[in-house]
């Protein structure tokens, strides 16, 4: 019986989710970057950028023991992309960087703790692999779901993700 490592499982899940995410990001119409379906909703361009920037956040979980949101020297997202080309270029760069960080890691490192905090207030403390799944993958999937709704409301056909969609009924 072959057993795969924690690292291999995360990489396989990441690869699957990245492929699906890229399909949706490629559909973002930047002429509608200011579109928001509700006054409390993020604008389309900001939502798409957030999904991409979360890739750098996931890399932080892999490479560091903590992140303090009050640290003025902490990593910050870059400027918002202004075109589909910029968005996809950043997606490719951040995806490759995250994959490389995971490949350089190992199961032992992924079981070390990661703490997300604001000064003394702990927002989240989990083993790195758990943090990657909860605040990384699950968080991204949540926002990708929002993006699919925005695209649907703009009458943009939605690709199959975990199964057929109304617009792509067969794989």
Automatic annotation (TrEMBL):
Pfam families: DinB (PF05163)
Superkingdom in the source lineage: Bacteria
Keywords, ordered alphabetically: Metal-binding
Annotated residues for binding of a divalent metal cation: 50, 139, 143
GO MF terms, alphabetically ordered: metal ion binding
Keyword Metal-binding in annotation: yes
SUPFAM superfamilies: DinB/YfiT-like putative metalloenzymes (SSF109854)
Entry-linked InterPro entries: DinB, DinB/YfiT-like
Entry's family note: Belongs to the DinB family.
Name of the protein described by the UniProt record: Uncharacterized damage-inducible protein DinB (Forms a four-helix bundle)
Taxonomic path: Bacteria, Pseudomonadati, Bacteroidota, Cytophagia, Cytophagales
């Amino acid at each position: 019986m072959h057993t795969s490592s924690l690292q291999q499982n995360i990489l396989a899940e990441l690869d699957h989710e990245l492929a699906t995410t890229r399909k949706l990001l490629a559909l973002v119409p930047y002429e509608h970057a200011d579109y928001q379906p509700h006054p409390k909703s993020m604008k389309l361009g900001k939502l798409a950028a957030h999904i991409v920037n979360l890739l750098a956040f996931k890399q932080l979980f892999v490479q560091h023991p903590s992140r303090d949101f009050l640290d003025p020297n902490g990593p910050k997202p870059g400027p918002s992309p202004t075109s589909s080309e910029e968005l996809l270029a950043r997606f490719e760069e951040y995806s490759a960087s995250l994959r490389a960080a995971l490949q350089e890691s190992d199961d032992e490192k992924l079981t070390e703790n990661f703490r997300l905090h604001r000064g003394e207030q702990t927002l989240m403390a989990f083993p790195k692999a758990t943090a990657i799944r909860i605040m990384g993958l699950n968080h991204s999937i949540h926002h990708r779901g929002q993006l699919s709704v925005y695209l649907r409301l703009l009458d943009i056909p939605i690709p199959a993700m975990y199964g057929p969609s109304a617009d792509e009924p067969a794989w």
